[in-house]
Each structure stands twice: as C-alpha cells, then as structure tokens.
C-alpha cells in the first residue's frame, strides 16, 4: 500500500529539489526514500525505477525551463527574442543546476513526442528561429548551434571555467550578438531540384 500523500508528482518534485541540492547524479530512489521517511520499495508504487524517475525529472525540468523561456520571449522577435530566450535559459541553468543537468539526458523519442512541454519547446524555439527566415534543414542546424552554445557557456560558467578578468555577463552579451549575426546571415541549404 502506498504511503498516504505520496504521489508520482510529489516524488518528482522532491527529486528536482534533491537534484539542485546534491547534483543530478545523486538523485537515487534511496535518497528520495530517506527524504520521505519511507522504504525504497514504497516509491515503486509511483515510479518504475531509477531510469523512470530520472526521465520524469528530465521532462519536469524541461517543462519548467520552457515556461521560463516562454515568459521571457513573449511579445518579442528577432534579436530581442534571442536575447530573452538565451537569458532565461542561462538563468534556469545557473539557478537550478541539478534540474538543468536532467534536461541534458537522452530521452526516448516516443516520450518526447507525447510530452506537451517538449512540443511547446519545439514550437517556441522554432518560432523564434523562423523570425530569421529559417526552415528545415537549417532550422535543426540552428537549434543545435544555439543549444550547444548555451549549454557550453552555462557549463563552463557554473564550473568556474572563465578565469579571465573580462566580466562573464559582457562575454555572454557578446556571444548573443555573434549568434544574432550568424542567424541573420545563415548559410542557407540549397535545394537544387
């Protein structure tokens, strides 16, 4: 019998808090069971195991991240939207490091396709990039450029990897300027029929 008050949503929310406190790699069923004061087995009524818990956490965190981004980009276009998108991404990554780490794991494509938050992520990201006149396959290439740039910058920043005297925010702003130029002058894929 499941412990009263324990639900899948509460388990995932507690996993998100634990991820930020101790690191995503330290989110385990045992650690969560201790947090709730229950035996590990009690959690299996709500999640199928560690892989399921981490996938649920990734989807939860991905939903939070796109909520931050959507609020930031609302009513904006072009460079303003790009800067707002990037700023919200960076803020989430720095304020919620464990949850952000969860968003970087590989998730089964069928789960992504069935997730409203993941569909919303694609819609908002593609919508911002379409303002630059991008269509497939350039759209996918641009998404990969943005994600790798944002992720790399945030990973280095959170690890203290920027040692130069230059203000980290000034470098971030310059990176957004450079991305805007790259998107504006994107080398379009030619469709020679």
Explain what you see.
The protein has 193 residues and is mostly helical. It has 10 helices and no strands. 69% of the residues lie in helices and 0% in strands. The N and C termini lie far apart (63 Å).
List keywords for this structure.
single chain; 193 residues; mainly alpha; 10 helices; 0% strand; globular
What gross morphology would you assign? Answer: globular
- Span between termini: 63 Å
**What is the helix tally?**
10
Percentage of residues in helical conformation = 55-70%
Mean pLDDT: 93
Structural class: mainly alpha
Give the ordered list of helices and strands. HHHHHHHHHH
**Biggest sheet statistics:** none
Concise account of the structure shown:
This protein is mainly α.
Helices and strands in order:
Blueprint: H1 8-22, H2 29-36, H3 40-43, H4 50-73, H5 78-95, H6 97-102, H7 109-113, H8 116-130, H9 138-158, H10 168-184
Helix pairs in contact: 1-4, 4-5, 4-8, 5-9, 5-10, 9-10
